Amino acid sequence: MRRLSQVRDEVDGWRNLQRRLGETLELAGLGDESLRPELSAALEALQTDLEQREFRALLSGPYDADDAIVSIHAGAGGTDSQDWAAMLLRMYLRWAERHKYATEILDTSEGEEAGIKSVTLAVNGDYAFGYLRAERGVHRLVRLSPFDSAHRRHTAFAGLEVYPQVHAADEIEVNPSDLKIDTYRSAGAGGQNVQKNETAIRITHLPTGIVVTCQNERSQTQNRENALRVLRARLLDLQRQKQEEELARLKGGFIKAEWGSQIRSYVLHPYQLVKDHRTSHETGNTLAVLDGDLDGFIQAYLRSGLDSGPASA
Questions:
Q1: The CATH fold of domain 68-165+261-304
Q2: What is the rounded CA–CA span in Å between residue 184 and residue 178?
Q3: DSSP three-state, residue 215
Q4: Average pLDDT in the 187-192 region?
Q5: Does pTM top 0.85 for this prediction?
Q6: For the structural domain made of 176-251, what CATH number should be given?
Q7: Helix axes 36-56, 295-304, angle to 10 degrees
């Protein structure tokens, strides 16, 4: 039903565009000069709509239309990297807000001094995964550190993983006997926020060694459901990676993406620049990017043809 609704909306959108085009052509055929401003506005709206639909055609992978699960992990850089992970979380929350996507933080591990060590975020909306898969990789920040008493320049790294949410339970089968499930008390700020019951969930998938934790809900049942949701997404991604590796082996070569090579640099000092190293797309408006203005980078990547598949990094 979800897929049917998406296809129906897509078809209705094209039919609406066709109808508007016909009306505009009829208006132009009248030859009335006083209608020129109205015609110009209609043509501009048609052009914008067509460009958006042309770009949407790039999102034709099997999971591109689905919701996404985003995991952000602080990397090298100590406290700065944990603060950078928190900045990235805010950036993607603002991006999702711009696109009217619903977001839900499933799990958070707070940093010792500031920021976060890791966070798992669900982004729900049409084509959320199709857009966000362009963001998978290592993000690098260069700035004057607010945590350095000498106020020196520091470099921090954070990694982003993006998975499609699996809505059909039979798409990824999870054998209960393959799971080790542990419960523990959720970490909190202290005082009244300390959980007295073991509501947090840790699930280990024994065949693959994948570990998923969820602790943001006060209900153990809800945390368990969210953890299984993330586990299915990660198992689907693992399955995709194996298929791509096998296909690349048959073709005669495969280069595995490893942690350490950044896809994008955000430089706040000594100059202002955000640059994507895959496409060379860049902008000096760093504040806008950190406030969620990412569409230029996402579109440049998806149009570049660098993507080796509809769900690849």
A1: Alpha-Beta Plaits (3.30.70)
A2: 20
A3: coil
A4: 51
A5: no
A6: 3.30.160.20
A7: 60
